[in-house]
């Protein structure tokens, strides 16, 4: 009788694992709240109207067409019972022999309810579209603003978090400001559009090399981004950003990219969870104090000799963990042992704008046009499906040669829709 593996989450880790096990003697069930895989590194390009959402999303059922041992289920996880080996969604119950948690992370607002309620995150395709709507609607509202104070608030965009997401989005918005928006809104003086980037650490891209930190900041400042480092946002009410030094910024759009926290499903004991709300695993990805339960990707926390504080929460790490766990499951069928997981960082990169990027390799750091081309090539290769690759490539080429796009469309739902107990009103602004 086939053993059952239930995979929760269809991000990089969960999807890679299911694809690696599709031709094995396991019955695989992959559960996700969405019926599609989302390419998170390019959410910022959807938010800045450079790419359409369908170009970075791929239907799960299309991926597993013809894979008879893989079942796709759309559902919201309600509870995990690790003793009975059952996963409960809102409408179904799934038995498992092995459970793999690959639920990734969500935004960390550090307990600030006002920021959570009023800021715009960018952790899903829906949220990226919502942010695009908000930015475009602000310009429409700016045209009819009656006071200079209102106009200033509509023309301020504040990004909190100077990591890759914040830096890449800031650069994309700066290019949008200088090359695209003046054509659409000739009555708006975009010299007054202020893009603020606020980072709590002393530098942007703090996880990268000092050289990349300096180059990224120089690029951003040359593009007109107003950067404040070593300072934290303390509050946001939808109209005013409050900073810890007592100053404030009038702003109708606050984009939150300042941190993540593990998305742990109910049923995992507290003893198995560590800082950042991540699940503690051993070097075979098995969850601490639980049998036949594994965790991979951003949600997992594995301490090794080379990574005493856990692995970085990157797509490349998630894919490598999934490949290793797939080998482990295949070896279980053959009663063969598997070596512990090891990870060597191949490098990190971030793009700031057209012909502007930074790359850190183990023994080499560089920036500029070559770094930008490498960033584009590697991200293009990671996107699923020939059609999606072509869509992204064509959009990039059109944008490169014309400094424009045709994707500045405001899409709002006609009414609230409910599915699986969740109201789909994320696009409203």
Description:
The protein is of the alpha/beta class and 429 residues long. It is built from twelve helices and 27 strands. The strands form nine sheets. A five-stranded parallel beta sheet has the order 5-2-1-9-21, covered by helices on one side.
Number of strands: 27
How confident is the prediction overall: mean pLDDT?
91
What is the share of helical residues?
25-40%
Oligomerization category of the chains in this entry: single chain
**Between the first and last Cα atoms, what is the distance in angstroms?**
51 Å
Q: Major beta sheet, specifics? A: 5 strands, parallel
- Secondary structure class reads alpha/beta
What is the 3D shape?
globular
Total helical segments: 12
Q: Which range does the strand content fall in?
A: 15-25%
